[in-house]
Design goal:
single chain, alpha+beta, 5 domains, 5-stranded antiparallel β-sheet, 4-stranded antiparallel β-sheet, 18 strands, 50% helix, flat, protein biosynthesis
Length: 721
């Protein structure tokens, strides 16, 4: 079966766009081919800075014929109906139609239509121009003389050539010469821009990739990454160092080079006085270079690793020298930021009011930055006020939370006040990724308590499912206050996540709260603190009205379900314990954990079977409108099985209730499991739907006691099985 090779070669594609673009090309082409009736054995995409490539194997040479039956009018229909049927079916006369009979509908015409298949080359030539013209680049541009014409091709960078060859392994390939904006698809590509700029004629993928390799182009991005990583580790090791891993930078650099060559540069050791985080980001952001450290050391070395795209005749010395000059200049700027942030601001007299508002010490640099943040009225969000107002809200909320978390109130207050101060530092202004990290360093330099410095860094955490969760009570308290203020604020102004859109990362904030509570085993009722946060916001923004508690709590429930499912909990068991007003997240998780352990044991299966039978009968009768007594009347019992079940329910309910008070859900379920035998005896000996309406209503009320008793632990009707 034939194979298809497609290459779209252009000027350099931004590294961040390459992987997705190659995936989009694969999906768009294969979807179009399958939609046109072709099948294929396999497809793989490739990408480099200057090309997107698609290798499709085992493609049908022709699409299958399509046979279709089109039902027409009855044979005794009027002439106009028959003419319309002939036009729609593409028949020249009614004699070409077939007559089918139906016992109910009589005889009617049917057209047997055969649509012949098409050659794969024709299909490819038809679908490719539209795919290229409508390619979903995040950003695109017009170029060349054709760009003056309306509707000219838009591409991420100027498109230079197209390769499209098709053919079986044992045959000569054909070029499918479709055209897009004057570029005609052919079998010619080009290698490395400097090492091999000559034209290369290709037939199919095997010789295409082989010839590109000879022309200094490593087509496979994953292989380029492996080459860079291996060479970087080796050169670091040879110099007594270890590479500081950075998967994001590795992905980016692999998208910047076609023929990677790894080199090592250096900078003055004096710059190592700058925090390692600043050095790493300076070198990474500006020069796309990796940093190194001594084996086992926490701080960096003065050696960095760069990746060139050429084999230089001087062994790369000029490249190393040029990169070194830029790195040293950038580090000089970083050293300037670092020193400036530790000095006094020039306008301290203008900061006095803010200093008094937040009890700041203007002798300390970080306090000055917090005062400056407030004085400048830096906006957090147009509807939620300034950063200074937000810090005031976080401060008040953190004070309330400290009563529950047990954190030192004075340390919590100090950490909350300084948490956002580093937003006004020059280091964070240059590298926003360092917010929190730089606050921690500057707090330590000015002598803050360690718990305060840690909380300044950690109040942003956790920022995702794999991020570290703070454990110190001060850090946990400020982190909770920060996230709850964010969630309550955006809920209050109705800026909630919708579908896949979550511009303010509110899902991440909610997951952060859940992880702080559950992994820290904190007993934290959500609703009261929603109210505290909302009250603080309304005090600053009286125009904000309404309540958010139930709606925001439902959002937390959704996030909690996702979190617990990721840990392996069954969705039905989560639903069984989750009630609309449940706001103690740790209690919910413990109930799910206990129910999961219990329901898989024999006694749990027994309880589930007996309870579900009782609740299903009761629910069915309630749905029909059957009368159910408001309370059980022992005088209406006629059989010992009724009396035994009633007594068993009373004992089990009381034992379960006492266990729940102690938060011993396992014992509560064990107490309820003792109902299985009397329930079975009851159903074997007692007819619930007695002819006597009073007895029937009383027996249904008895089933209602079973539902009520078990409902204190979980809604067993929601459990599968």
């Amino acid at each position: 079966m034939p194979d298809l090779l497609i290459e779209l070669r252009s000027e350099e594609i931004p590294a961040r766009m390459q992987r997705k673009a190659a995936g989009d090309l694969k999906k768009l082409v294969t979807d179009a081919l399958v939609g046109a009736g072709l099948t294929y054995e396999g497809a793989r995409e490739y990408w480099s800075p200057r090309r997107l490539t698609l290798d499709i194997r085992g493609l049908n040479a022709r699409s299958a014929d399509v046979r279709e039956e089109r039902k027409g009018p009855r044979t005794d229909a009027n002439e106009k109906a028959i003419e319309g049927f002939l036009r729609a079916a593409g028949l020249s006369s009614i004699g070409e139609a077939h007559v089918h009979s139906d016992p109910k509908k009589g005889e009617f015409y049917v057209a047997h239509i055969v649509r012949p298949g098409r050659a794969a080359e024709d299909i490819i030539a038809d679908v490719m121009p539209a795919i290229i013209r409508d390619f979903p680049w995040p950003k695109s541009m017009r170029s060349g003389a054709a760009s003056a014409r309306p509707g000219s091709l838009r591409w991420v960078r100027p498109l230079q050539s197209i390769v499209c060859t098709f053919g079986a392994e044992t045959e000569e390939t054909k070029v499918i010469p479709f055209e897009v904006d004057g570029i005609v698809a052919g079998n010619v590509t080009y290698g490395h821009r400097f090492h091999a700029p000559e034209a290369i004629s290709v037939r199919r993928f095997a010789d295409y990739s082989e010839q590109l390799e000879k022309a200094k182009v490593v087509l496979d991005a994953e292989r380029r990454k492996q080459m860079i990583s291996a060479d970087a580790h080796n050169i670091a090791f040879a110099n007594g160092l270890e590479l500081v891993e950075d998967e994001g930078l590795l992905e980016e650099v692999a998208g910047l080079v076609e023929w990677p060559r790894v080199l090592m540069g250096s900078f003055d050791e004096g710059y190592l006085d700058i925090p390692s985080e600043i050095i790493r980001l300076t070198i990474k952001t500006n020069q796309k270079c990796f940093v190194t450290r001594r084996a086992g050391a926490a701080t960096l070395s003065n050696k960095f690793i760069l990746v060139a795209n050429i084999e230089a005749s001087d062994g790369g010395q000029e490249i190393i020298h040029g990169n070194g000059k830029v790195v040293r200049a950038r580090l000089s700027d970083a050293a300037h930021f670092w020193k400036r942030d530790q000095g006094d601001l020039p306008d301290l007299e203008t900061l006095q009011a803010s200093a008094e508002k937040f009890a700041l010490d203007l002798e300390k640099p970080l306090d000055q930055r917090m005062a400056k943040l407030d004085t400048l009225n830096v906006t957090f969000h147009a509807k939620l006020g300034t950063q200074g107002e937000r810090v005031a809200r976080i401060r008040a909320l953190a004070a309330a939370l400290a009563e529950v978390t047990g954190a030192d109130a004075a340390l919590v207050d100090r950490a909350a006040v300084l948490a956002k101060a580093d937003l006004r530092t020059e280091a964070v202004g240059e590298f926003p990724e360092l917010q929190g990290i730089m606050g921690h360093k500057y707090a330590a330099l000015q002598g803050e308590e360690r718990a305060v410095a840690d909380a300044i860094e950690d109040h942003y955490k956790p920022q995702g499912p794999s991020d570290r969760v703070p454990t110190d009570p001060v850090s946990v308290t400020v982190a909770l206050a920060d996230k709850l203020d964010t969630l309550v604020g955006f809920w209050a102004i109705d800026e909630k996540p919708t579908g896949s859109k979550d511009p303010y990362a509110l899902r991440r904030a909610a997951l952060g709260v859940i992880r702080l509570v559950l992994e820290g085993k904190a007993r934290l009722p959500m609703l009261p603190f929603f109210d505290v946060a909302l009250a603080g916001l309304k005090a600053q923004r009286p125009d904000i009205a309404g309540e958010i508690g139930g709606d925001l709590l439902a959002f937390f429930h959704d996030r909690l379900k996702v979190y617990l499912r990721d840990l392996g909990a069954r969705y039905d068991l989560i639903d069984a314990v989750l009630t609309p007003g449940a706001d103690d997240l740790l209690m919910i998780a413990r109930r799910v954990e206990a129910l999961t352990a219990f329901i898989t044991a024999e006694e749990g299966k027994n309880l589930l079977a007996g309870t579900k039978r009782a609740t299903q009968i009761l629910a069915a009768e309630e749905k029909k409108g059957t009368e159910v007594a408001a309370r059980v009347d022992e005088k209406l019992f006629r059989l010992d099985a009724e009396r035994t079940l009633h007594a068993s329910i009373m004992i089990a309910s009381d034992d379960a209730r006492q266990a729940i008070v102690k938060e011993d859900f396992r014992s509560a379920m064990e107490a309820l499991s003792r109902l299985r035998e009397p329930v079975d005896v009851f159903f074997n000996a007692v007819l619930v739907n007695d002819e006597d309406m009073a007895i029937r209503a009383n027996r249904l009320a008895l089933l209602g006691l079973i539902r009520t008793a078990t409902g204190e632990v979980a809604d067993f009707s929601k459990i599968a099985g």
